[in-house]
Input
Amino acid sequence: MSDFRLYDSLLRFPLFQGLSRAELLLLAGQTKFGFLKLEAGQTVVREGDACQQLFFLISGNLSVTTVNDDRRYSVIEQLAAPWLLQPESIFGAHPQYQSSVTTLTESHFITLTKDEVLRLLDDFLIIRLNLLNLLATQSQRRGRWPWRKAPADLRQRIIRFFLDHSVYPAGPKTFRILMNQLAQEVNDSRLDVSQVLNAMQDESLLRLRRGIIEIPSLEHLLM
Output
């Protein structure tokens, strides 16, 4: 990839925004970027693997699967380029990937090893600030979760459950969860949860199958 194409690709990611053209061209020429092409259906990262590098998706579509701690339910999401995979996993007390990622289509990535990330953080103040802002924003948003207004009814509690268990608050989601488990999660009866979900299915907001809830567009639940 030429420096100019790399420059254009990097500008699509918040981590590099604010750098001048000269700084980005200098960065592109001095940094050891990796380039990865994967066909559809290939694994990018697995939950629990050590995070040793950053993956910048520059083209293609991904499937992201996150499973709860006791493995009773999971959510599968679809994400499209540009996307930076789990940057919060590269540092901290538990530097492992929290979700498994596979390709849905042919996908192209730019990669940066942890050593290269550390060097860039030393060499470019704006990148250091961008990463701090990214992580601080995520931390602040999650820190506000316990203080949000309580959902008004069961329907809103179910939508809150879907939203809180999604990496990205929009797009298609597939929840693999039994009705009894969902009822336990939202603190209500199985019958009441079933009635609310069927009403939402009648409104074409989701589709129900045995043990599976398919949501075509999560943002439509929030309208």
